[in-house]
Design goal:
With 163 residues, the protein is α+β, with helices and mostly antiparallel strands. The chain folds into two domains: 53 residues, Beta Barrel (Thrombin, subunit H); 98 residues, Methane Monooxygenase Hydroxylase, Chain G, domain 1 (Up-down Bundle). The chain has seven helices and five strands. The chain has a five-stranded antiparallel β-sheet. Helix 4 packs parallel to helix 6 and helix 5 packs across helix 6. The protein is elongated, with a radius of gyration of 17 Å.
């Protein structure tokens, strides 16, 4: 399981740190709660121990897995004009809710390619999902690579532009 000080990722919230584990009694039932702080959003959540597995909470990736992230960020085939016209919001939201850094990278890759295929940029929903995906990865990269938020955004931009 997890312990205080572990860096974890919570789907749709990004990466944070377990700050404490508190025992609480609610409706005559004692339960441990994991107190997780997400620095990028400045949010603290209390997650009950009995829901940890189903919540999708996981440890951050290992530094050696960053290369897999780099590969996943590379732009995919440019979206066809037909596909470029419709937003991918449902598919992208499903990927973002998975809590997988590689799924978030796929959202960035797909939307970056789609944006290149459009003359007037992305739909508002696609833009929102692109921003969410970047923020999700930034929060994890900051902890994995011990870098600043700005450096994490630069990392994503460098590897998702097809340079």
């Amino acid at each position: 399981m997890f312990k205080v000080g572990d860096h974890v990722v919570y789907p749709y919230h990004g990466a944070g740190t377990i700050k404490d584990i508190e025992e609480k009694t609610i409706l005559n039932e004692k339960l441990n709660y994991f107190i997780v702080f997400f620095p990028l959003n400045n949010v603290t959540l209390m997650l009950p121990e009995n829901r940890i597995k189903s919540s999708g909470l996981r440890k951050i990736i290992q530094p050696k897995e960053v290369e897999d992230l780099v590969m996943a960020l590379k732009p995919s085939e440019v979206a066809s004009k037909k596909d470029a016209a419709k937003p991918y919001s449902k598919e992208n939201e499903t990927l973002l809710k998975s809590g997988s850094i590689l799924d978030a990278a796929a959202v960035i890759s797909n939307l970056t390619s789609k944006e290149e295929g459009r003359t007037n940029g992305l739909h508002m929903e696609d833009r929102k999902n692109l921003d969410r995906a970047k923020q999700f990865i930034v929060s994890e990269l900051m902890l994995v690579k011990n870098i600043s938020e700005e450096e994490a955004y630069q990392f994503i931009d460098e590897h998702s532009q097809g340079a």
